[in-house]
Amino acid sequence: MRKGETKMVQRHLKRIGSLAAVFLLVINFISAEIKVYSSVDSRSIRKNTAFRIVLNVELIDEKADFDEEKIEFPEIENLEIRGKFTSSSTQISIVNFDKKKKNIYKITYQLIYRGDKEKISIPPIKTEIGGKIYRTDPITLNVGGDKAATGISENDREFFITPLISRKELTEYEKFNVKYFMYVKPGNQIRNIAPDKKMHFDSYISVQKYDVMDELQKNQNVNFEKTVLKGIEYYRLKLYEYDLVPEKTGSINIPEFDFRIAYQKKRSGRGDDFFDSFMQNSRVKESIVSTESKKVRINPLPDSDFDNFSNIVCDNLRVENKISSKKAVTGEGLTYRIILKGNFLSSLASPPEFKNTDNWQVYEPEVVEIPGGVEYKYLIIPEKVGDIKLPSESIIYYDTGEKKYKKLQMRDYSIEVSAGEEFAAEEGENQGKKPFKTGNIHYIRDASEVVDKYNPVYRNWWYKAGVFICLVLIALRIFKDYREKKYFTDEEYRRMVESSKMAKKYKRKVKDLKHQEFYLFAFNFLQKYFSNKLNLKGNFPTKNQIIEAIKNKINSGKLHPETVESIKEIFEELEKGKFSPETAENKKYINKKISEIINIFESEV
Questions:
Q1: What CATH fold (topology level) applies to the domain 159-299?
Q2: Record's InterPro entries (predicted)?
């Protein structure tokens, strides 16, 4: 190369180097900026339906602190802020061979729009950082229609929650029912669902009748039922059910509630088993779904001429009264039951007034809720001998069907009462003894009579034998644990026990896995199993670390040399299966080898 050409190349290289230096400086300058920007779930929202706007703040090696109190969210007509929550994280990156730390703050606003515009514009969100004002870009949103009665007019929704109310016009103190149903289109998997906050019904007395989470805890499963709404197929699930009694009159609302739903699109050919859920967590999304607010008309009760109104408002109340016996003895108790059945809230109802008389001593009733009503159990004790009538009781309630107050008279009872022993207690064997009243009357016996007839359980031979066997088993278990712990630290012993539990779970979980899923699951299982069993560092040691640890066990005489070769073969086949399933041995053969190794380690190590 000639001298002139050499100098030209050198000049070009210098220019390229200068440009590269300038480019790196620009990159470094840009990366050091404070970034403030906003994002939204979707540019299309629905009226009266919750959506979220997220304010993102990124501080890259900045000394200025971020103060959430200095954020100014714009005020927009008919736009409500339903909630706000903040999260933060830190990222470390290398830029131009220099380590950079980035602090990221996410402030999430939960919003609902209640206006009639088809488009709304969210002005810039402002915040002050280090004495400087930062603004986000404005956001324009398209507004769709309101949720109609059942909320199914919009065919593009994958799932929604709607309340079903039994009555929309009621009378004061009248009970009605509200159920919350979730509708899900086929092809979606619901991973979790929960109210954004505790469900509270203002202006109502509420009693929860059903909670889907309680059902899950009892049965470990809930069933979606198939249904078709306006030609669209859905799966329906009942989430909650409440009985409500209004405390006010006029037009009052059933409040709207927000629910957080974690969901994902179901992949074809996969079941909803444990492993499928474990592998697909990265694709789970979260959404906020709002129910609509419903109005209920509450009419006031008319004035009543009765003094002893029971606070029961329902259609067709039924009453029944029963006595435990039509014959009685003075001083001995009878059970008098009054049963009320109808659609009313039992906690609001007043028990029938059943007063003491010269003939009867009456105790406060026991209140028992029964299906469709309530039962009052009175203990009554006759005081006089003869043919004694029970007081004739009645109950006053408001009939919503006929829209008037009604008086229900209860059945009359005449009780034949004979003299009890307390009338002759001044002489005979009960002389000087007083009756002990606990419902039925019994005289207290001498202590010696009671002791002679009492035979406690611990005096029986079979009880003593059972206790002896239990103590022997406990002693053997303590001795076994002591022998095992003698050779290990507490942490080593804990990991050994944990590996044994893992071995039992492996055999149950591996049955339903597909081939490629099996290879990945089995590989990770063996890493963690040997990590605990051999007390290795970390949950996922390498294959070589595991082999080396097993060789040490062989040298100590605890394992046979062939064990190493078997484990090498298993790991090689599992690695093949993860990346090239067609070249690996079949699942059944490998699983058999793994089971054999587990049995060896559980019995020998």
A1: Immunoglobulin-like (2.60.40)
A2: BatD
pLDDT: which is higher, 426 or 241: 241
Residue pair 193/259 in contact (Cβ under 8 Å)? The answer is: yes
pLDDT in tens, 245-278: 988 888 888 888 888 888 887 655 444 443 344 3
Residue 229 in contact with residue 150, Cβ under 8 Å? yes
Of 295, 348, 292, nearest to 167 by C-alpha is 295
Fold of 488-604: Four Helix Bundle (Hemerythrin (Met), subunit A) (1.20.120)
Largest CA distance in the chain: 146
Q: Both tokens of residue 322?
A: 């029963």
| Per-residue tokens: 526 | 């063996």
Rg value, the chain, Cα: 39
Would you tell me which CATH number, out of the four given (3.40.50.150, 3.30.460.10, 3.30.565.10, 2.60.40.10), belongs to the domain 309-421?
Answer: 2.60.40.10
- Tokens for 207? 């009693």
Q: What is the Cα–Cα distance from 33 to 60, expressed in whole angstroms?
A: 7
Higher-confidence residue of 600 and 17: namely 600
In the numeric block, the tokens 């994280």 are attached to: 89
- Token pair for residue 157? 């929704």
Condensed to tens digits (0 to 9), the pLDDT of residues 324-342 reads 888 888 888 888 899 999 9
What does the domain layout of the chain look like in residue ranges? 1-29, 35-144, 159-299, 309-421, 488-604
Give the separation between CA 408 and CA 406, rounded to whole angstroms: 6
Least confident of 101-105, 410-414, 424-428: 424-428
* Six token digits for residue 395: 């109950």
Helix pair angle (587-604, 562-579), 10° resolution = 140
Contact status, residue 365 vs residue 354, Cβ threshold 8 Å:
yes
In 32-78, alpha helices (H): none
Amino acid at 78: N
* Predicted TM-score of the model (pTM): 0.50
Query: Fold for domain 35-144?
Result: Immunoglobulin-like (2.60.40)
Residue 280: partners with Cβ closer than 8 Å, 6 or more residues away = 264, 267
Q: Give the C-alpha separation, 499 to 508, whole Å.
A: 15
CA distance 551 to 554: 5
Residue 520: name the closest of 576, 475, 445 by CA: 576
**Local confidence band at 539 (pLDDT 50, 70, 90 cut-offs):** low
Dump pLDDT digits (tens) for 568-579: 888 888 777 766
Please tell me if the domain spanning 159-299 has the same topology as the one spanning 488-604. Answer: no
pLDDT given at position 3: 52
The CA distance from 317 to 309, in Å, is: 14
d(CA 236, CA 261): 15
Q: What is the pLDDT of residues 381-407, one digit of tens each?
A: 888 888 888 866 788 899 998 899 998
Are residues 33 and 101 in contact, defined by beta-carbon separation less than 8 angstroms?
Answer: no
Give the per-residue pLDDT at 349.
85
Residue 284 has pLDDT above 60, yes or no: yes
Cα separation, 166 vs 180, in Å, equals 12
CB of 135 closer than 8 Å to CB of 126: yes
DSSP state of 388: E
pLDDT of 165 strictly over 70: yes
Alpha helices by DSSP H, listed for 262-304, are 274-279
| Angle formed at CA 484 by CA 480 and CA 489, multiple of 5 degrees | 140
